[in-house]
């Protein structure tokens, strides 16, 4: 006579969300709970998505795809702007020209002067528009993560800025003159160079690229986590409300908070692009004119 075996319990599955709009908007997984039914907050895994594979080999992931889309968007915007350039600009051309004038007048010419400002305007404008495009993808539906939220791109942009002002300084002052002006500032008593020189070296050649990278990276990481937390909480509370839990009414607060942080992220996207571009111009100006 066969022995009856007890049924094997089926592990609990996370509840499937029916709120596909919020899921798409915040790039959330289909479930906001773990296997035990508890709320699952966002974590660092948000920035390491499952890569796309070709022939079983990882090729790129969603963040790399977002970066390619942002770069293609910048190129397309500029190509269309050049093709549609007219004596009387259209609304589209006026919008692009507003960004270019902002970089030209408020950064390049104001920091570097008219001559050097025009010389470095292409680099500074590229920084501004590319960083803005990579930042703003954090709130674009179906993209929903900043292209600068993983260290690769911020580090590359900081390295370009870093090498630019060093090369510019060497060309303007010579190798010896450039490093002497940065490491041994005039007017300092010679014994104090034992203290001043290491500080100047760390400030100019170590802290500058580090701060450019971390400032851009940390703001986008924090912004993404806040948005995911708000909209994920909204999903969770709304599902609780639909299940009869009055506490779920708190979804109103998290939803409002999510949209508030979305507006704030737009400001951050512009501000971080502007600050990175501005600091690059300041560093180039210091390399060209050490007496300032």
Automatic annotation (TrEMBL):
Predominant place of localization: membrane
Domain of life, source organism: Bacteria
Classification via CDD domains: ATP-synt_Fo_a_6 (cd00310)
Subcellular location: Cell membrane; Membrane
Pfam families per record: ATP-synt_A
SUPFAM superfamilies: F1F0 ATP synthase subunit A
Alphabetic keyword roster: ATP synthesis, Cell membrane, CF(0), Hydrogen ion transport, Ion transport, Membrane, Transmembrane, Transmembrane helix, Transport
Protein topology in the membrane: Multi-pass membrane protein
Family designation: Belongs to the ATPase A chain family.
Protein's recorded name: ATP synthase subunit a
Species annotation: Aquipuribacter nitratireducens
Source species taxonomy: Bacteria, Bacillati, Actinomycetota, Actinomycetes, Micrococcales
